[in-house]
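Q: Entry one of two.
A:
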Amino acid sequence: MALRKAGANWVDGDRFFDREPELQALTERVHDQVHTLLTAQRRMGKTSLARELLRRLSATGQFNTVFVDLEDAGNAADAISEMSVALAPIQGVWTRLRSGFSRRIQDVGERIEGIELRELKVKLRAEVDPGSWRIRGDELFSAVAASDLPLVMVIDELPILVSRMLRGDGDGITPVGKSAVDDFLSWLRKVGQTHRGEVRFILSGSVGLEPILQRAGLSAHVNIFSPYELKAWSEQTAVECLNELAETYGLQVPDVVWREACSRMRSCVPHHVQQFFSLLHERLGWMGKTEAETEDGRRVYEEDLLGVPGQAHLEHYETRLRLVLGEDEYRTALELLTEAASSAGRLSHAMVSLYLQSPPKATGPASASVEQVLHLLQHDGYFTSDGDAGYRFTSGLLEEWWRARHARHFVPIAKRRAQR
């Protein structure tokens, strides 16, 4: 089957490339009844990998599989509603579950398909409230446990939900938010332990869960989840993907074009690799060419991937920080990233020391922790430890984009201190 171009979202089937060792490892974890915390840098393909895993497991006939996206959920009750809707099509689950709900919910539950799923979600969100979500959640997984087949449930964007709950309507972590997250994750942990033989959880998200919980002092809640890190493609794998795409679309591209692009990317993030191909394919198309030259690759990288056509894909790195960080932490993250971008992509320990002495001015009741922000930036793939030299951008593409976007008028902290 010919490899097709990836879209902006997750991919599967003829758009899914490689990752066979990772799929095998995760499949073994499922059979071994292991709950997994799937971690990776941004745009590494966690969602695509998880959905492809579910597709293959479902095809064996040995498992029920569901994918639950919590990005739009605001609290524990919303999360239970999303899980209920995702599980509703599984034979027998709703029959065992619906007796606890009102007549209007039962009526929808008896005809679940298409539009009824959206209707069910709306009605569930109105009925599952802060006082009943735990009861409904227990009923839900008791119904699942009674099924003939074990369940593999991928819970995507749990970190976004947790961050939203921690902050509530404010900027920083609140006592009420921390208590709510504590209750929800305690319940999820209990479900995972109680129904370990019947349910396997895989947690994922576009930002890391562990740094968020560490800042809130709630890290113990993920100790039943075994981490699995999804790494970037090797240069060879990236080139193989690009060559397969070129063959599918009838292009002739010398390997030097692919290797120069991969070298500049430094970290061959699958989304970035495939975005480069899409932009090259489009440029060659409007030029009326099917054979690429080295200069074509360079112009695509600099004018398209780093330019306006690639903006939305790279802005994702910045917007995701704003979603999970309070205003002070967000400002600290921007400062550290821009400091590194303006210093050849590196943030030395001496620079970090200056920030520890003079963190960015707080807008809230307390300044952000520089150490905590650095931990998140490493965990989520913005920075890599550079040993005694400090830290550096993991992605050369992100480094170049950040420098062009933020560093033009930036004054490094050492210069600011010298001017005082």
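Q: Entry two of two.
A:
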Amino acid sequence: MKLLVFSDIHSDLRALEKLMAIEADYYFAAGDLVSWARGLDKAGPILAKRAGRVWVLSGNHESPASITAFCAQYGLEDFHGKTLRIGDWNVAGLGCSAPTPFNTPGEYGESEFRERLAPFAGLSPLILICHSPPHNSRLDCAGPGQHFGSHAIGEFIQAEQPAWFFCGHIHEAEGVKETFGATSGVNVGKRGYLLDLATV
């Protein structure tokens, strides 16, 4: 069973086409398909080629409501704040980012992140997919001393130790991997990460 997780396409339709050409059983778009919620109508038909196998999170550039409507229009699955059972695995998703200086459409405060992560506590084994990385981690490094991730997500990872954690948001950390105790973390970016559950 293969899961392809990717993020931060930002209207790079060629990159999205390449991702959809990869054979996987499940496709998870972890936010920021576009910028400032513009151009979803162009991304939709590409994702719709894999309809029934595509789960979508809002990034900070899309509001959760816009992604709900987008998924309904193109036959995709809205994954924000939801869980999915794949064999013995629990997969949970949470979109949006911590507040940015740009006041983008999909931003949460830390208290809201904690509230929305709470239903995922106790799920095991767990694969957690968020748009935002944990604050002050390698997955969250935009430059020396520059960190914009979520404290609440970091706290959840430390407490719950999901087997896998995937995120995006910080473009400079694309492809970076980091372990948090028993958790393997990856900032997937638009190149994506293919997880084969048969080998883990």
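A: Comment on entry two: The chain is about 20% helix and 25% strand. The radius of gyration is 15 Å.
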